Amino acid sequence: MALLVGERQHVLVTEESFDAQYFVSHNKFYEQVLVPKRAEFKGKMIEVDIYEAGKHFLKGRPVEESTPFTPSIAKPLQKGEVSGLIKEPIAHGIHGPASSTPPSSALWIGSYRLDRELLKTLGVGLTVAAAILAFIIEKLY
C-alpha cells in the first residue's frame, strides 16, 4: 500500500471511523481510505491525494479544486418513495397509465405499477433461496 502514497484517487465516503476522527471511504479497489470529517463529504464521491499508508488503510487529503458529487445515474429518492414502483395518476377513479397505450408487462397494485420483469427476478431469487435453505436443513438433520 505504500506505493499508493502520492496518488490521486476518487473515493466514496460512506461512514464515520470507529475513533470518530475521520470519515471512512473506499477507492475503486475497495481499499479503506480515511478522509477528514466534513459534513459535505458524507455519501459523496470526492477526489483525494493519498499522503499516508498503513497496513489496512490509506489516508487521503481532499483536492481543493475538486467538488464532491453524488455518484448516481438517477436522482435520489424522496422521503417515502420506494424504488421499483412507479406512481401513476388516477383519472376518474380508474387506475391506468398516463398515456393511452397500456403497458403490456406491468402489474397494477393500487395506483402503483410494478414491472413484471422485476417480479420474475424476485420469484427466481426466492426459489433459489428456498432450494438452498432446503439443502442446508437436509444436511443438518
UniProtKB/TrEMBL annotation:
Task: Select a single GO molecular function from the record's annotations and give it.
Answer: tRNA (N(6)-L-threonylcarbamoyladenosine(37)-C(2))-methylthiotransferase activity
Superkingdom of the source species: Eukaryota
Q: Does the keyword Transmembrane helix apply?
A: yes
Q: Name one GO cellular component term.
A: endoplasmic reticulum
> Mind listing the UniProt keywords for this protein, alphabetically?
Membrane, Transferase, Transmembrane, Transmembrane helix
The keyword Coiled coil belongs to this UniProt entry's keyword annotation: no
**Domain TRAM per the UniProt entry, residue ranges:** 2-64
Residue ranges crossing the lipid bilayer per the database entry? 118-137
Q: Which InterPro entries match?
A: TRAM_dom
Could you tell me what this protein is called?
Threonylcarbamoyladenosine tRNA methylthiotransferase
Provenance organism: Liparis tanakae
